[in-house]
């Protein structure tokens, strides 16, 4: 139980990848703050699953795109717990557009939730980690480094997120806080399965050397590793979890190498 007695905040953890991360950290002993924005029911459900593992869970509603709501969330954590050991910056949103179609509203919306929130939350999280050290992990995507269709503004926000990760890793190292990120390729969530079925997203099983798509639990395992003491010397890095897709775009998936 490496995280027994530790408190973790996972933003956007009612569903999807955030939920898998929250459950993984809880299974290793962490108490969890389940943050949500629009879907209270799924957040409460995740919290119940966490409590069934014998650890504590608290649900906090906060739109991380709004700095005042970030302050409220951290004030609540400060008042109710007085400390924080792990901060997982998972919540994200975005507007599916090409770069030429991004307007000011889409830019602000996406950057506020995906990048600005990461910085503002980390600033508050670091204060609650004062004197005890901590771990901060952000969830990025391959769109930070590769051009994906209609992903411009989200990709740009994820690139900013990875840069924030590097700066924080160095600035927070003297406080014994490890900061890293995990970048996933398309992850097989319920939403993604729907988009594939509708033909809106390509079924990447065909182009993943590992032979299947990334699932939320694959991301959660790497996040848990980065939160462990085993990863102490990894700082400011973005670990790619994509089954090999990004380094082998021209190799058909699932084919055995000829001898
Ligand atoms: N799915 C993929 O293929 C994929 C690939 C690479 C990276 N990622 C990254 O992985 C992370 C999770 O993705 P996902 O697919 O699991 O997401 P998702 O299913 O779209 O869920 C988004 C989560 O973020 C929360 N959220 C959205 N806006 C928020 C806000 N303003 N304040 C607080 N919470 C907010 C949602 O809460 P509510 O339910 O309450 O609205 C929800 O829990 C994101 O950072 C995403 O960019 C995803």
Structural overview:
The protein has 259 residues and is of the alpha/beta class. It has helices at 16-27, 40-51, 67-80, 104-128, 152-172, 190-197, 216-226; strands at 7-10, 31-36, 57-61, 86-89, 134-141, 177-184, 238-241. It starts with 6 loop residues before the first strand and ends in an 18-residue tail after the last strand. α1 (16-27) packs across α7 (216-226). The protein is globular and about 50 Å long. Helices cover 40% and strands 15% of the residues. β1 (7-10), α1 and β2 form a beta-alpha-beta unit. Strands 3-2-1-4-5-6-7 form a seven-stranded parallel sheet, with helices on both faces.
Give me some keywords for this one.
alpha/beta; 7-stranded parallel β-sheet; binds NADP nicotinamide-adenine-dinucleotide phosphate; 259 residues; globular
List the helices and strands and how they pair.
Blueprint: E1 7-10, H1 16-27, E2 31-36, H2 40-51, E3 57-61, H3 67-80, E4 86-89, H4 104-128, E5 134-141, H5 152-172, E6 177-184, H6 190-197, H7 216-226, E7 238-241
Parallel strand pairs: 1-2, 1-4, 2-3, 4-5, 5-6, 6-7
NADP nicotinamide-adenine-dinucleotide phosphate binds next to α1, β2, β5 and α6.
């Amino acid at each position: 139980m490496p995280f027994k007695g530790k408190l973790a905040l996972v933003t956007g953890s009612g569903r999807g990848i955030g939920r898998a991360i929250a459950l993984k950290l809880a299974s290793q002993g962490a108490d969890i703050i389940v943050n949500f924005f629009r879907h209270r029911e799924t957040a409460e459900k995740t919290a119940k699953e966490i409590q069934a593992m014998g650890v504590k869970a608290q649900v906090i509603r906060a739109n991380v795109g709004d700095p005042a709501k970030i302050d409220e969330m951290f004030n609540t954590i400060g008042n109710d717990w007085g400390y924080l050991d792990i901060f997982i910056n998972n919540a994200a949103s975005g507007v599916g557009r090409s770069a030429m179609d991004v307007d000011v509203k889409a830019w602000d919306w996406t950057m506020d939730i995906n990048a600005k929130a990461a910085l503002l939350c980390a600033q508050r999280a670091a204060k609650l980690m004062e004197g005890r050290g901590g771990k901060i992990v952000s969830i990025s995507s391959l769109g930070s480094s590769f051009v994906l269709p209609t992903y411009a503004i989200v990709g740009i926000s994820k690139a900013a997120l990875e840069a924030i990760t590097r700066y924080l890793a160095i600035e927070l190292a003297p406080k014994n806080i490890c900061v890293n990120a995990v970048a996933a390729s398309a992850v097989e969530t319920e939403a993604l399965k729907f988009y594939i079925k509708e033909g809106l997203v390509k079924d990447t099983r065909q182009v993943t050397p590992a032979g299947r798509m990334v699932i939320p639990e694959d991301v959660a395992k790497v996040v848990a590793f980065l939160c462990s003491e085993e990863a102490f010397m990894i700082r400011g890095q973005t670990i790619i979890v994509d089954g090999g897709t990004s380094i082998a775009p021209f190799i058909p998936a699932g084919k055995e190498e000829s001898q």
